[in-house]
Amino acid sequence: MKNEFYTLGAFAYPADVQILKGKLESEGISVFLKDENTLLSDPLISDAIGGVKLQVYTKDKERAIEIYNEVRNYAIDEKGNPITCPNCKAQKSEVYYSRKGIFYKLFPFFEKRKYRCTECNIITQP
Fold first, then answer.
1. To the nearest whole number, what is the mean pLDDT of the chain?
2. How far is the C-alpha of 33 from the C-alpha of 53, rounded, in Å?
């Protein structure tokens, strides 16, 4: 069976995905929000189920990724400067939590902040 959907990203809460959803739909790309209604009824289980998954048809994957990269927010430091990847020098890093271990799965806010470069996928700590 062919995989019909591509998960573009996961967001902690349904409100976090609405602007991107609107932008993709305005470009003619159909968008599906997996687990949106579950989190609308109980937002406290977001970490347990992995948040709201923004999905597009596989045929729209490349165009959807381009649009997402145009509007996504990349990580910045305390001074407002973009985080620079030490490996490839790209300024396209996102906050990353590995959530290894039961403690960090239950209490992810205790985990030290890390960054994942969207270009080379290296994970760094400040």
1. 86
2. 6
Domain range list for the chain: 5-71, 74-126
Domain 5-71 = CATH 3.30.70: yes
pLDDT at 2: 59
pTM score, whole prediction: 0.65
What per-residue confidence (pLDDT) applies to 29? 96
- Whole-number Å distance between alpha carbons of 75 and 94: 5
Distance of CA 124 to the CA centre of its chain: 17
Three-state secondary-structure class, residue 40 = helix
The DSSP string of 2-20 is: ---EEEEEEESSGGGGHHH
